[in-house]
Amino acid sequence: MHDVIRLDVKENIHSENDHIADHVRQHLSEDGILVVNVMGAPGVGKTTTLKNIFPHLRKAKPYVIEGDIESDIDTVDLQNMGFDTYQINTFGACHLDAPLIHDAIHKMDFDKEGILFIENIGNLVCPAEFSIGEHIKMLISTVTEGSDKPYKYPLAFEKADIILINKCDLLPYVDFDEDFFMKGVRAQNKDVPVFKVSGKTGEGYREVAAWLESRNPD
Ligand SMILES: Nc1nc2c(ncn2[C@@H]2O[C@H](COP(=O)(O)OP(=O)(O)OP(=O)(O)O)[C@@H](O)[C@H]2O)c(=O)[nH]1
Ligand SMILES: [Mg+2]
Question: What is the pLDDT of residues 46-59, one digit of tens each?
């Protein structure tokens, strides 16, 4: 039988990631680029949200980094619409990290002040734990996911700077309890702004775009 040795680990396991994230944030701030980390479960409408926000941006040029485990479907879609989009594939990892974003931004050309939207891997757990150099964490939830998500996945809701409730066109067809959802959100995050949107009707995105454009990348 071997002796068990206890080791006190004093260094934060995220410290190297956070150091690179700070560098990414500072670098892009100096270029006048606001960085938005777009998070949410698979299929909540992250890419749909980007497509709907972009036409409402009055001054900021949109840039996109698409994070997927595999495939470039969303990137090809956005490039065909004329948006500067860079693909990252993690081939297994369930979230993006700061070193991946650091490499990506050095391959991109930021020719104008704007907003870099980083669509994280579809996942309501891991992305919330890693800083990737963002100024804003934008969490997308949907009425089809159910109103209990803030209670079951609290970290994502706690860390969000803005929350969108998407697919509101489907409210008549699903049992989404908005009061229960908002009670769960407020238990984690007292002040976060919450916007109801729909990629089907286009409602809500003008207000989201205006809110984003009112933020400073400092
Ligand atoms: N009815 C309805 N469908 C929506 C809405 N938003 C997105 N969808 C549909 O939901 C599906 C997923 O949308 P995406 O925008 O690809 O979702 P995503 O979060 O980017 O998905 P991943 O990148 O795979 O994680 C698509 O079939 C969309 O057309 C909405 O507001 N209402
Ligand atoms: Mg997508």
Answer: 999 999 999 999 99
* Strands, E assignment, 13-78: 33-39, 61-68
Give SS3 for 86. strand
Residue 7 lies in a domain: no
182 C-beta closer than 6 A to ligand 1: no
Domain extent, residue 201, equals 15-213
Find the ligand nearest to 197 CA: 1
Ligand 1 contacts CB of residue 45 (under 6 A) = yes
* Closest ligand 1 atom to 197 CA: 31
Q: What is the pTM of this model?
A: 0.95
**Total domain count, the chain:** 1
- Kindly state whether residue 8 falls inside one of the protein's structural domains: no
CA nearest ligand 1 atom 3, residue = 167
